[in-house]
Write a structure and sequence with these properties.
The chain is mostly helical. The chain contains 6 helices and no strands. Helix 1 packs parallel to helix 4. It starts with 19 loop residues before the first helix and ends in a 23-residue tail after the last helix. The model has no long low-confidence stretch (mean pLDDT about 85).
């Protein structure tokens, strides 16, 4: 659940233990950490989440706290890049340098082989022969590429 989503119109809370300002203040004091704010208010974390979902003021406090955390993280990354820490330089280039062509590429190779690791047998067949093959029951122990049931099925409508 996105805790910063726009407030919905939930049914009214029967009896509110807190004013929205109190929950917002707890979120700010606890830097947006919901469990810590709940501990500070002596309530369940779900109560704080309910207030965040219901009241714009609480949403704003959570959003502001998370923005501040991101600012801190970016400042720490900047310092590490300036110190030429390899992990930080690599991370910054992968994430922020994409517009300049710095992207991580991963190559994947997959080998396909026939029975017992041997070569794949390939032969030319006519359309009618292909239909006949599709109508045959699957060989014992065969598995479809899509992980479906062993019978080939699907030729009925062809």
């Amino acid at each position: 659940m996105d805790e910063t989503a726009k407030p919905s119109n939930p049914p009214p809370i029967k009896q509110r233990r807190f004013e929205p300002e109190q929950v917002a203040a707890a979120l700010r004091a606890c830097h947006g950490l919901i469990s810590k704010a709940a501990t500070r208010l002596r309530c369940a974390p779900s109560t704080v989440r309910d207030y965040v979902q219901t009241f714009e003021e609480c949403q704003e406090a959570l959003r502001d706290a998370r923005e501040a955390l991101l600012d801190e993280a970016e400042s720490g990354l900047r310092l590490s890049v300036k110190r030429k820490q390899p992990w930080a330089v690599c991370f910054a280039l992968k994430c922020l340098g994409r517009e300049r062509g710095y992207i991580e590429r991963t190559e994947s190779r997959q080998e396909v082989s026939g029975p017992n690791g041997g070569p794949i047998q390939v032969s030319e067949v006519t359309y009618e022969q292909a239909l006949g093959i599709l109508r045959e029951p699957a060989p014992e122990g065969s598995v479809r590429a899509d992980g479906g049931p062993e019978d080939y099925g699907g030729a009925e409508g062809l």
